[in-house]
């Protein structure tokens, strides 16, 4: 990973051990996080995987000096999510006013339903134009990804404790009965013990 990061960060990283104000270890951790995410999306082509990760890290490095309070991993994850959402919006032709938080989730599901890992891996995060079959499969998968999520309101209801509520209404009577039953059982065992151990 270090040679690839050095290539992005320039020769200065080799001299100082830092790229865009962050250590190489920090960028390596960001690299691993982004790579694992793409791997979870089933991008298995190593060359493509490396190119995509470096593309995300390049975007994160461009922000890094202006945002010193964010870690390299945080910047990389934000840029990865932004890049993926922009790509989903382009492929699915969703105008900016209709984009919402579910775009990323439904887009990832559409990728799997369209069998991106099996058939269209080379199209992932690639700029258009894309094959018509791929676009159709993605749109169909996006529509199948489920209805729009809606916020629902739940009103609190009292708990039904079943038989415990009847015990509460009976007062001390059940407790007296229980104590009497246990006292009879204990007396029975004491009597049996005395009868069997007397000689």
For the biggest β-sheet, the strand order reads 1-2
Give the terminus-to-terminus CA distance: 88 Å
Q: Which structural class fits the helix and strand makeup?
A: mainly alpha
Mean pLDDT score? 79
Count of all domains: 2
Oligomeric grouping of the chains: single chain
Shape: elongated
User: How would you characterize the largest beta sheet?
Assistant: 2 strands, antiparallel
Total helical segments: 10
Strand content of the residues, in percent?
A: under 5%
Share of helical residues: 55-70%
Question: What string, H for helix and E for strand, traces the elements in order?
Answer: HHEEHHHHHHHH
- Give the tally of β-strands: 2
Low-pLDDT residue spans: none
What is the gyration radius calculated from CA atoms? 32 Å
């Amino acid at each position: 990973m270090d040679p690839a990061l050095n290539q992005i960060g320039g020769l200065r990283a080799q001299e100082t051990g830092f790229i865009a104000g962050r250590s190489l270890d920090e960028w390596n951790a960001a690299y691993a996080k982004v790579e694992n995410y793409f791997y979870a999306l089933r991008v298995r082509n190593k060359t493509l995987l490396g190119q995509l990760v470096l593309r995300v890290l390049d975007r994160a490095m461009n922000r890094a000096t202006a945002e010193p309070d964010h870690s390299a991993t945080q910047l990389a994850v934000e840029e990865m999510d932004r890049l993926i959402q922009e790509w989903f919006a382009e492929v699915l032709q969703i105008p900016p006013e209709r984009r919402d938080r579910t775009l990323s989730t439904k887009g990832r599901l559409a990728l799997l339903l369209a069998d991106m890992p099996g058939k269209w891996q080379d199209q992932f995060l690639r700029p258009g134009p894309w094959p018509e079959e791929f676009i159709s499969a993605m749109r169909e998968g996006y529509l199948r990804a489920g209805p729009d999520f809606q916020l629902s309101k739940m009103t609190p209801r009292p708990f039904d404790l079943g038989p415990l509520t009847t015990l509460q209404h009976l007062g001390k009577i059940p407790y007296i009965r229980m104590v009497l039953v246990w006292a009879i059982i204990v007396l029975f065992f004491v009597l049996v013990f005395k009868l069997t151990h007397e000689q």
